[in-house]
Fold these 2 entries.
Entry 1:
Amino acid sequence: MKQLQNCLYITKDGAYLHKQRETLLVEQRIEGKKHKLLQVPIHSIGAIFCFGNVLVSPQVMGFCGERGTGLAFFDQFGRFQARVVGQQHGNVLLRRAQYQFSDEQQLTFVKGLVGAKLQSSRAVLQRHLRNHGAVTEVKQASARLKQIIESLPVQRSIDSVRGYEGEGAKHYFSVFGQLITNPKFEFNGRNRRPPKDPINAMLSFLYAIWGKELSGALQGVGLDPQVGWLHTERPGRDSLAQDLLEEFRAYVIDRLVLTLVNRKQVKPKDFITDVSGAVSMSDEARKTVLQAYQSRKLETINHPFLDEQVEIGLLPHLQAMLLSRHIRGDLASYPPFCMR
Amino acid sequence: MMVLVTYDVSFEDGNGAQRLRRLAKICLDYGTRVQYSVFECDIDYQHWPLFKAKLLETMDPAVDSIRFYKLGKHWRDKVAHHGAKPALDIFQDTLLL
C-alpha cells in the first residue's frame, strides 16, 4: 500500500530549491546572503507545489521526474502554469486498453462518476439540513438531485448524462450560498476564469491542486491522464483527471471551503479584488487554506469500496488504481468514490 | 519505522570533527535533526540496513558511540518537546514556506 507522503508548498518569493545528497534544501537569498529555510529528506516528500517566483534546480526536477514525485508550478495568483513529467510509467498495454474503452464501458463509467458526484453533492446539502434545520430551497434542491440520480441508470448516451450533470450542478450551486452561515461572505453561483468572489477563488484554487494530484496519481499507475470520457479530449487538458475530480469535489473541497468560511478561519480582508473584478487570495489566506487542506488530507476514513482505513490524501492514488484494474479487466466495473 | 539516532564522537584524535560532520550528513539524508547530535529518522525496512551500515562504517568504534532507539508505530505518543526550536514533523505538519 502506498504511504501518504507530505506535500511541500513554497510561496516565498525568490526561494531556491536544490538537492544536496538525498535531501531537499530550500534557501532564500536576502541581501545577497543565503538563508537556509528547510532541509528535508527527499523520500519523505510526495509532491512539491511552487507558487510565484520560485527557483528549482535541474537536479531537483530530474529527481522528481525519475521518482514520480509531483512538481507543479503555479503563478502568484495560484493559477496553474506547468508540471514536471518524468518518463512514461506503466504498461503500454494498459494505456492501449484505455484508448480502446468501448462505448458501453464509457457510458457506465460516466454514469458512475456523475452518480457519485451528485450523491456527494447531495450529502453536503443533507448534512446542512441535519445540522441547521430545514430550509425550503435547500430541501428542494436536494430532492431534485435525488430525482436526477435516480434517472441516471436508464440514460442511453453520454451526452444526456452530461446534461443531467450540468443540471445537478446548477441546482447544487444555486443553494450553495445558503450553506454559508458566515454573513460576511456571499456566494451567487459558481464562476471562474476569473473567480469573482472569495468562495469561488478558494474553490478554483483547491480544485486545481487536487486535479494535479489526480493527474500525478493516474500517471503513477500508468494511465494517460489526458484521455477521459466525461470531459471531452482537448489539447493540454487532463480530461481523465478532471473526470475523477468530479467524485471528490463536494466531499473533499466544497466541504473544506464551507468549513473555512463558516468557522471564520478566513476573513473577507484576506482576499484581493483587482480592477477587472477578479478575486484572488492574499498570501496569508493561501497559507490558511493550504494548512486546512493538508490536515483534511491527513484525516482517515473508511474507504467504502476497499473497506480499509485510508487517509483522504491517498484517495487519488486508490481511485486511479481501481480504475486501472477496471480498464485492465480485473474489476467488472469502476467503483467511483462515494461517501454516504 | 521511526528510529531515534544519537551519537557521541570523540575529538581526541584529529579526525573527530570530520566523522561528526559525515555522520550528520548521513542522518540528514534519512531524517530530521531534532537536536545537535540527535536525529529522528523515519525509514523503511529496506533502507534500514544500508543506513545503519553507513553510520557504523563512518564512526570509529574505539572512541565513538551511536545509539538507535526504535520508537515503533505509535512513536508520536512517546515524544514530547519542551522549550525552544521544536522540530517539525515532516509527515504531518504542513510544509509551507
Entry 2:
Amino acid sequence: MSSDLSQFNDAFFEEASEHMTSIEDGLLQLEQRPSDLELLATIFRSAHSIKGVAGMLGFTGVAQFTHKMETLLDQLRNGKLAVTPPVADLLLRCTDVLKALIGEAKGGEKPDAAQVGHLEQQLADCAAGKVLTANQAPSAPAPVVQVSATTGPTALDAPPHPMQFTIGWTPPGNIFQLGLDPMQVIKDLRNLGAVSHLKVDAGKLPALDTMDPEQCYLAWSLVLDTIKPQEVVEAVFEFVKDDSILSVLDTTPDPPVAAPSAAVAAPSPSHVRRTADDEGDVKPLGAILVETGAVSQEELNNALAQQKKVGEILVEQHVITPQQVAQALETQKHAEATAQAKKSDTATIRVDTAKIDRLINLVGELVITQSMLTDLGKNFSPVKVPLLLEHMAQLERNTREIQERVMGIRMLQIGTAFQRFPRLVRDLAQKSGKKLQLVTGGEETELDKGVIESIGDPLTHLIRNSADHGLEPPSERTAAGKHEIGTIRLNAYHEGGSICITVEDDGRGLNRDRILAKALKQGVIQEGEKLSDDQIWQLIFQPGFSTAEKVTDVSGRGVGMDVVKRNIEALGGTVGIKTTTGKGTIFTLKLPLTLAIIDGMTVRVGNELYIIPLVSIVESIQPKTDTVRTIADQAELINVRGAYHPILRLHQAFNIDPEHTDLLESILVIVETEGERVAVMVDELVGQQQVVIKSLEKNFRKVPGVAGATILGDGTVGFILDIRGMLDLTRRSELKVA
Amino acid sequence: MGQTVLVVDDSPTMRQMVAFTLTSAGFQVVEAGDGKDALAKLSTSLQPALVVTDLNMPVMDGLTLIKELRKLPQLKFVPILMLTTESSTDKKAEGRSAGATGWIVKPFNPDQFMKVVKKVLPE
C-alpha cells in the first residue's frame, strides 16, 4: 500500500468519542421527543461518520456494528419504524457496546463477543421485523452490480488469456454536465489493452445552427483486445452505463486451447505480482488458490493446520533450544505490550486556534523583552537601574500571561464530564423504580483536562449515592409533601482560585443518629464523644462505612464514599457535606483549577520555608495573652472573635528549631478546610507568590501534612502544606487529650 | 503545479484522510465541513479541478450541494465524486441525476481512491 492511514487513528478516536456523546445525548432526548426528525438525523450522521472512518482505518468490528445500528436508525429516520421505548433502549445498549468496540480498537479489552452478537441480532430483528409487520414489500435488492472501488476488478477469477470485446457506446447527451469526458473513457479502455477499429458515429450531429455545444451527439464503436475479463471492461463505464446505450460483446475468436488450470495450479511469480497490483495489496498464496477455485477454504485450513511453527522447526533441526524459543516469544509479547501501551498513552487535545494565536503573539513579546534586557546588559550602568526594573516588570507580566494561557490550553469545559450523567440517572431510575431527574448547570466552567478526567468516577459515585440513599421512592415523597420526581442537581462554578462542583439532591438528608450509631458500633468514635455536625457527616467517608440496610445493585458495588474522598484528595481537593433532614443533601467538591500551579503564601519557621495554599487561608493574627487557652497542659486553643480554634505548632509537627517558641511572639495563620479551622503557628509571613507544584510522592515519598514541594526563587526547596493533613495532625493530638 | 480538489465532509478525520491521500498524489486540497461551507469557499476565486463530497452532512447535504454546484458556471463541467457507503446504493442514482460524475464507496484505501480520481480527472 502506498500510504498509511493509521496516523489518523488518534484523530478518529477523539472524533468518535464526540460522536458517541452526541449519539447518547440524542437518544436520551429522543425518548422525550420521539418524533424529532432533526434529532434522528443528527444521531444518524454521527453513527454514519463513525462507520465511514472506522471502515477506512480497518476497525472492522466498529464499522460492522455501526452499520447495523445505522440500518435501524435509517428505518427510524425514514419513518418506517417508530421510536418506541424498547427501540430507544436497544439503541442505548448498543452505544455501550459500540464504546467498548472503539475501546478495543484503541488497544483495550475485547468486549464480550456473545453480547455483541446478541445485540446485532436484536438490531437486525428490530429493523427487519417491524418493516415486515408494517406490510411493506421488502425492497428488492438493488439491481446495480456493485463494481466499486472497494470490490475492485475481479481479475482473479480469470486466467490471463487474450480476450476480444466489441464495444458500442452512445453516451448520454449530458455527459459533459456530469463532469465526464468521453475521451477519458476511451483512454481508460486503451489502458486495458489494444483498441482497434475505433469509429465515431456522427450521424446524430445536428446542423450547426441548432447544435448545443454543451451536448454530446456522438457515439463510438471499437474493438478491444485485452487480457482482462468482461467485468473489468464494463467497469470502465461504471459511472455512465445507466444513462448510456452500451454493448460489450465477447468476440474472442478462438477459445484458448491451452488449459488455463495449469497456470492456476502453479501461479508464476509474475501472475502473483500482477494480481497484487490490481488489488493494491499482496495476497497470500492460499487466498489466491481459494479464489481461483483450485482448493476450497476448508482444504486450505486443513493444510495450514498441519503447518509447523517456525520455532518448532528450528528446535527439531537442533538449531536452537526450546528455552530460546520461549525467550524470543516473551520478547515478542513484551514488544507487543509496549507498542500497545504507547498507542493508548498518546492523548490529544483540541485547542481553539485563537488560543494558540494569542500564545504565539505573547511569545513574540517575550522575545522582544528578552532582547531589550540583553541590550541593557551589554551597556549597563547604575543609572539604568530604573529601566532595568521596568524591563523586569515587563518580563514578569509576559511570563505570567504565557503561563496562564498555556494552562488555558489544557482547560476544557466541565460539560464534557457531565455528559455521561443523564444516561446514568436514567438507568438508575429504571433499576431502582424511583422517579428521578437530573438538572445540570455551569457546564461552561473551565477546568484542567486532567482534573476533568479524574472527577468522572467520584461524581458517578456521588450521583449513585444520591439516587440510592438520598432520594426516596415516589410514595414516600408524596407522603412527605414533595414532588414525586426526585431531583439531582449537578452544578459547577468558580470560587476564588478553585472550582466547586456540587451534587445536590432533594431527598431525605443524612440521618445523624444512624451514622452515630454505626460509627459507635464500628469503633470509629467512642461513647460520649462530642462531635460537631460537620464532623459527623465526614464519618461517612470512613472506609467500609455504610448505613444502607442492604447492599443494592445501584450503589453496592464495593466502592465506598471513602474512595470518593481519597480520589478527590489525590487531586488536591476536598469534599464537603451539607444536609438538612427531610430536605436533602449537598456534596461539594472543591478542586484546584489546575494540578500544576497554586497561589501560595510563603511562611518561615526557623530557617525553613513553607507554602500555604492561599485558598485555605482565612486570616493571619498575632495572638494576645487573653485569647490563648491551654487544655490539659497540651492542646492549645485560640479564641478568634468568640470561636475557638486548635493551634498547631508547625515547629513541633516538623521537629525544627523555630525563632519563637512563645505564642505571643509568633504569627498564627488561620486556615480552613471543609468548614474546620486550625491556627498554624509560624515565625514570619514572607510573601505571596505563585508556585509550581512538584510531586513529593513521585520524587521522594509521601510525608504527612505535606502536599508537595516547590523550587523557590533562591533555588531552595519549599514544602507546600496540606491543610487537611494539618487538621488531622491537630485532631490526633486532641484525641490524645480526650 | 498541482490541481486543486475541493473536499467536503463533516467528519474532520475523513476530510484529513482524503486530503492526505490527495496531497500525497500532488494535488492541492481545500476542505469544507458541509455544503454551505463549500459554496462559501467557491464564492472566492477558487477553481477546483475536482470536487469530492460526502452525502450525509449537517446544514447542507451532498445532494443539495451537487445541484447547487452544477448551477455555477465555473463548475458546470467539473467532475464531482460523491463518497457513499454500501447502504446508500439508491443514492448513487439520485446523485447522478443531481449531476454527480461518479462515486467512491467507503471504506476505501488511498490507492483505490486515486484510481477513481484518475478515472474522472484527465491528466
